[in-house]
Amino acid sequence: MTSSIRKRLSTGAGKRLVARPVAVAILSTLLLLLHRALEAQQVSGSIDTGDTAWMLVSSALVLFMTPGLALFYAGMVRSKNVLSTTMHSFSMMAMVGLTWVLWGYSLSFSGHGSLIGDLGWLGLRGVGAAPNPDYAPTIPHTTYMIYQAMFAIITPALISGALAERMKFGAYMAFTFLWSILVYCPVAHWVWGTGGWLRTLGALDFAGGTVVHISSGVAALACALMLGRRQHLGSEELAPHNVTMTVLGAGILWFGWFGFNAGSAIGASALASSAFVATNTAAAAAALSWMAVERLATGKATALGAASGAVAGLVAITPAAGYVGPVSSIIIGLAISPLSYCAIQLKSRLRLDDALDVVGVHFVGGSFGAIATGLFATKAINPGMVRYNGLFFGGGVQLLWRQIVAVAATAVFSFALSIAILSVIKLLSGIRVTREDEAMGLDLTQHGEVGYHLEAV
Amino acid sequence: MTSSIRKRLSTGAGKRLVARPVAVAILSTLLLLLHRALEAQQVSGSIDTGDTAWMLVSSALVLFMTPGLALFYAGMVRSKNVLSTTMHSFSMMAMVGLTWVLWGYSLSFSGHGSLIGDLGWLGLRGVGAAPNPDYAPTIPHTTYMIYQAMFAIITPALISGALAERMKFGAYMAFTFLWSILVYCPVAHWVWGTGGWLRTLGALDFAGGTVVHISSGVAALACALMLGRRQHLGSEELAPHNVTMTVLGAGILWFGWFGFNAGSAIGASALASSAFVATNTAAAAAALSWMAVERLATGKATALGAASGAVAGLVAITPAAGYVGPVSSIIIGLAISPLSYCAIQLKSRLRLDDALDVVGVHFVGGSFGAIATGLFATKAINPGMVRYNGLFFGGGVQLLWRQIVAVAATAVFSFALSIAILSVIKLLSGIRVTREDEAMGLDLTQHGEVGYHLEAV
Amino acid sequence: MTSSIRKRLSTGAGKRLVARPVAVAILSTLLLLLHRALEAQQVSGSIDTGDTAWMLVSSALVLFMTPGLALFYAGMVRSKNVLSTTMHSFSMMAMVGLTWVLWGYSLSFSGHGSLIGDLGWLGLRGVGAAPNPDYAPTIPHTTYMIYQAMFAIITPALISGALAERMKFGAYMAFTFLWSILVYCPVAHWVWGTGGWLRTLGALDFAGGTVVHISSGVAALACALMLGRRQHLGSEELAPHNVTMTVLGAGILWFGWFGFNAGSAIGASALASSAFVATNTAAAAAALSWMAVERLATGKATALGAASGAVAGLVAITPAAGYVGPVSSIIIGLAISPLSYCAIQLKSRLRLDDALDVVGVHFVGGSFGAIATGLFATKAINPGMVRYNGLFFGGGVQLLWRQIVAVAATAVFSFALSIAILSVIKLLSGIRVTREDEAMGLDLTQHGEVGYHLEAV
Amino acid sequence: MIKIEAIIRPNKLDDVKAALDALGVQGMTVIHVMGSGKQRGRTQHYRGQEYIVNLLDKIKLETVVSDAEADQVVKAITQAAATGDIGDGKVFMSRIDNALRIRTGEQGDSALK
Amino acid sequence: MIKIEAIIRPNKLDDVKAALDALGVQGMTVIHVMGSGKQRGRTQHYRGQEYIVNLLDKIKLETVVSDAEADQVVKAITQAAATGDIGDGKVFMSRIDNALRIRTGEQGDSALK
Amino acid sequence: MIKIEAIIRPNKLDDVKAALDALGVQGMTVIHVMGSGKQRGRTQHYRGQEYIVNLLDKIKLETVVSDAEADQVVKAITQAAATGDIGDGKVFMSRIDNALRIRTGEQGDSALK
Ligand SMILES: Nc1ncnc2c1ncn2[C@@H]1O[C@H](COP(=O)(O)OP(=O)(O)O)[C@@H](O)[C@H]1O
Ligand SMILES: Nc1ncnc2c1ncn2[C@@H]1O[C@H](COP(=O)(O)OP(=O)(O)O)[C@@H](O)[C@H]1O
Ligand SMILES: Nc1ncnc2c1ncn2[C@@H]1O[C@H](COP(=O)(O)OP(=O)(O)O)[C@@H](O)[C@H]1O
């Protein structure tokens, strides 16, 4: 997602001074020297206010995605579980918001290990105002840290769609607490941390296709398998209780995703702009193609479908956003919706109860996006970060196999660890609520409150 | 909305170096030369990170207005049409989000024609990282392009308020597809494109009074006329089903409108700040005056009224935002609400079924704002872009008649084309749902889903 | 909140050029002179686009908090009062949005008086594009003005939680109109205005602990006392009608609060970043500790509790955000929730009807935060603004007693004036609706509309 | 006294109320219900999952009237609610043994007026 | 067995429930309804359009009791629900032929307890 | 004709509908209600304030059938709705004097089919 190389190149390009015929030779010389001095300063860590402004905004935008996700998911469950589902997201803002500062950032980004960070930045010791040249040379180190926090918050919340309407709240908190440490931090380090093995290998993940979407999508599968199906699966009553809430959630996600993807340029650069365009375009294309698939399959395009398609497109473009051009992003967007749609139909046929389709959207979308990066990435878009062009841009399979390795490694690791964590919790305290509590609803039984009292009293 | 002249002036002013007495003469000379060189570089296209940050954010904000509009409108229809109305907005994010990249931007902004752009930038060929000095000299060209995309997305969505609760979804998609090409792109080119005849004429439209609000407001009138009235018009049952949704929508629109109006300065400049102030002030004044009108007319100020007034004020200030001072923006805000309110009462008396008052808010607001620009615009606020002061600022009718020409031309053009497009679609496939489908609700009959299952199951 | 000193220091640091061994001595000299010239220019008022971008965004974010607050509060009342409660917030965007421009900003920030501003900036005369070196040397003065407007808008809206479900709308408007002039403007001047006595004294309030939260929290107490209890207090029917609305509101508040707190650095600086981190961390910690308290007290953590905790944490960190490190912000966050929770239980026992717990959250949170600033503030985080370190950082009670003075003075002043204003209005027109209107609901009786028609018609 | 329960289409409520008004019948209670019968449901799709929903939105209108008025009221409702298409609904009549106005304590027919 | 249907003001539900509790009547079913009668509606305005709404929110409380208890229960409800203002509501009584507890299959009066 | 009113658990509606379908009974009206009875309520907390809510969500299913069918229908409902735990609900039977199909004007038993 970020490397000092890319940053230095692009900033350097932006600041390159072109001498005009009118400028005398001595000025040119002085300017050249001045430029070098500025460059030096850049590297040694002065803060660019424009880059910092954009990264602070991006951090806020990504934080805002989590309440957006709460709406997106909560609209799809029954009204008796609306607060439970909301809490699955909101509680991550609380828990991971704290643990990230305490140890998460350090485990993910400090040191130079290949598998996991070290404890050098525990409690943010040493993470201060001065930029970190490895990750973000033009913004305060604290800005980079808090930007990353927002990714760590939303990732476990994404999993919650699979376990909706039947998991004990305490077990959920325990699971996400451990998962965050044992899965998220290592995978983030592999892909983005200095020394991380996937980063070193040269696998590309611009904004979190593997770290965020594949890791959570696979964990979702583990949860669905371990928890089993909800009662009444397949009957009418499992229809979404408030689709407008889901669409609003999708709107907030789309909005926030600009921070997620364009923010991953770690500056207000042309690269950020390019990622922004790819993001919007893929989301649009995927929403449209989901509507088209529904039109063909059932005769009618739905609002839930358009929202689902948009999110699938946003997921799929995430790993690729900073490496591909607008036409590639259209292709990626158009292709993901039929894939996700089919995966979801397959799930229903297998009677796997991934309640809100985390596997179909995030695992399928993230994997497709990671592989599409191996097909469409091009130095023309990002000379600083793309080492090998994608297959369709003449780079052969050099990048593609790296991408496949990254997908496979992340998927296997997250799946195995998720099953292990859930098994331990199941043994210790159980993971599923009683039949009666499930029928009564999780809001009342897990949280002692109800979502709505809409009628006059 | 933007011109290289304005930009260069304001940036130039900001970067002008003031030599201090302590500085020796040689340094002054060098600085002057350096300054020239920097200026040169500015023109030849270096990126300002602060401007870019602001424009990326503005793009995100304007995108967010469309889900906001979905809420604003959907809250006002009956619950059986809530998703249909939501889809009218959300589907534009999908469709126009794609077509803008493919041909819309090119048709609107490329070339130097007076009536429409050319195909030079088809599929964004040639639209890259380097700034375009004609439109936005300090930000990547892609940023300017995607910022404009958001305007193209929301404009057809605005129309949908007039056709709510009775139009076939397929016909709606066909209509907006064609309207976007045949009306939006030309009008955007007239007003903002290089060579566009209204731009050349010297008509002013800071952020889209004609391009966005008049064009959509008049198209809304065409839709209302072509579709006819809903069943049960005038009976209690047509009351809004969820006013809190509408107020939230208005809040999001207000928030996003800062990107719309202050973003139209195409940089984080004093001009952006001035437009930001005018926007907030006019919205506040108009919300207040709508409440006052209601208090006088019916004895009670309503939440729907406050929200409607805020939106009317935001519409009215849109064309003027970058040309007028805060006191003018108060006058514009205070004046628009009584005007819109009366227009809406007139509509009811004429039994014209402009369901959610697009004509009363957007056509009346946009026209009033465009004309008010001819009254209140002043070089004191914007020396770079205002050629003639408004009537009240000593500029005579020079600007005023240009504004009237722009309003009239846009209105006539959009109305005629809208009627034509609708007529063709009506002939080919029909535009209105059956009586039975209308009674059953469009959510079920057009989309095969329902908005709410709020009761426990 | 802001001082030219801090600004100059941090920008100066950011721009300090480090000469490299390769650079010849003459270049060093020239650079030094150039640097001085740039510094001079900085002070004499050139605009930094990055800072301006961040402050425009922050202004938009703080504006967005008010619709967020509308949701947060409106979700907690009964459905028959949902629009009334919404209007309590939305109407402040209208009214204060206008009066701030007319006289509010002048009364708060112009002149050098110790108790209140003067009328020098009435109607924004003299508030233009040029930065004001006293308040914000790197952004347009208009930007600083509009940023402050958003604080003035939300503060009276915060009070409305205490008076929900029983106050006449006209009386509410009159009260907030007068309160804004007689309480908000003076207190803002005391704390932030040039010459303000609390500023001169050296009391610290980074983003409005006293100005916003204590002043409104105490006014809320006055309202609850003057209005008396709602009918049926204590019965089941007073449960929140839509908790998802409240959680969404809390999400928007959290998002907007980054503008509130990190924006109070008045630039895209390392200080802004540090305040951003403190804000997010304290919110997370407080949400978590509220959940923990509930778990201990009632056996179950609620969604309403998590949302309430997050807001309490955001309130508590507000005065401290720019002066404390991340570990201090964790302590502040963890501590505030038990305090607020106990205060709320106490309120219930006293049968004081502060309907939505403004006293428990804003007065308790603001006071605790102000005092915590006296404990945790450190020059290590903010060398430019912290004169004395907090008690726990070796500064003795120098700062602490100043903080206590600020809390006490603000509380006494706001309470006395609030009681006085309410008494006058009570005498003239009454402040409480009739028993029958209260039973029927304020939406119907004060606004002539109802929130929901969710059932099919 | 007779209790008349009419299950009608939601969008016929206004017409039925007007018809009752014309007869001078003002007292009534209206309930949002869902009904199934001959009228076929509509298919809904959520992410491709198909639900055939045969409970459709209906309105149940209850009014208790004196024995004398009953037939006239039923007729008025029937006429106002009919469209001729399947799904128009049903009217049920049953006996009420006593009625009481809470405000005054009046009983029987006089409680109804 | 007698079925007692009481249409009351929403904010009287708590009081009525308490009164029934005092009598030992716990079994009841509560429905949100809208009613019209003598009580005049309130005017609503949406963008200046006026709607006079004469369906007001009410609560319908149904409880089936043995013949012996009926009068007492009606009296309790009436007292608890009355305010003396128009709109207090009505109580209707009608005969139930049989009652059955689903859980146990008990029938008649013993199904009610 | 007999009116059968069954108050059941919300999540038993599907099963009950299927059971009625099997008997050929399609006409029915379903209402969301809240009930109290033997089943104890759940405690809710809002900011530490405790509310013991003893009105729980239930479904009321009404179907009017001919005298002949009544017993069979009651049996089908009872079987489908039972879980054996407290809160399964009740079935009430009462007499309907006449039924009328709005669409056709048919009366009596033939209006029900
Ligand atoms: N036997 C019945 N008992 C109770 N309600 C019924 C019965 N039959 C029909 N209904 C109600 O009447 C509505 C309309 O009935 P339906 O059979 O669809 O149309 P029609 O009355 O035109 O034949 C149903 O949706 C249901 O609410
Ligand atoms: N004849 C009736 N049949 C059914 N419900 C009735 C009848 N008359 C009144 N109601 C119900 O009782 C409520 C109160 O009646 P209303 O006439 O307004 O007041 P009051 O009972 O004090 O005279 C109405 O809103 C309606 O729900
Ligand atoms: N006497 C009654 N009159 C009307 N409804 C009743 C009566 N008794 C119970 N009910 C309804 O039946 C539901 C279930 O009753 P409950 O006593 O909780 O369980 P069970 O039927 O298993 O004994 C209640 O929630 C209520 O809606």
Brief overview, please?
Chain A has 457 residues and is mainly alpha-helical.
Task: Give the SSE layout.
The complex is a heterohexamer, with 3 copies of chain A (457 residues) and 3 copies of chain D (113 residues).
Chain A: H1 4-15, H2 25-44, H3 49-74, H4 82-109, H5 141-159, H6 169-192, H7 197-201, H8 209-227, H9 243-261, H10 270-298, H11 303-317, H12 326-350, H13 358-376, H14 398-429, H15 435-440, H16 442-447
Chain D: E1 2-8, H1 13-23, E2 28-36, E3 42-46, E4 49-53, E5 56-65, H2 70-81, E6 90-95, E7 98-101
The complex binds adenosine-5'-diphosphate (ADP) (3 copies).
What would your notes on this structure say?
The complex is a heterohexamer, with 3 copies of chain A (457 residues) and 3 copies of chain D (113 residues). Chain A has 457 residues and is an all-alpha fold. Helices cover 67% and strands 0% of the residues of chain A. Chain A is globular and about 60 Å long. In chain A, 70% of the residues are buried. Mean pLDDT of chain A is 91; it is low at 1-29 and 31-44. Chain D is of the alpha+beta class and 113 residues long. Helix content of chain D is 20%, strand content 41%. A 4-stranded antiparallel beta sheet of chain D has the order 2-5-1-6, with helices on one face. The longest helix of chain D is centred in the last third of the chain and has 12 residues, at 70-81. The mean pLDDT of chain D is 94. The chains are: A mainly alpha (457), D alpha+beta (113). The interface between D and E is medium-sized, with 22 and 32 residues. Bound molecules: adenosine-5'-diphosphate (3 copies). One adenosine-5'-diphosphate sits between chains F (7, 35-39, 56, 58, 86-90) and E (27-29, 62-64, 101, 103, 112).
Strand content of chain D: 35-45%
- The number of strands of chain A is 0
Radius of gyration of chain D: 17 Å
Report the average pLDDT across residues of chain A: 91
Structural category of chain D = alpha+beta
CATH superfamily of the largest domain in chain A: Ammonium transporter AmtB like domains
Distance N to C terminus of chain A: 53 Å
Query: Which geometry of chain D do the CA atoms define?
Result: elongated
H and E order of chain D: EHEEEEHEE
| N/C terminus separation of chain D | 12 Å
Helix content of chain A: 55-70%
Q: Biggest β-sheet of chain A: count, sense, barrel?
A: none
At the fold tier of CATH, the topology name of the largest domain in chain A is Ammonium transporter fold
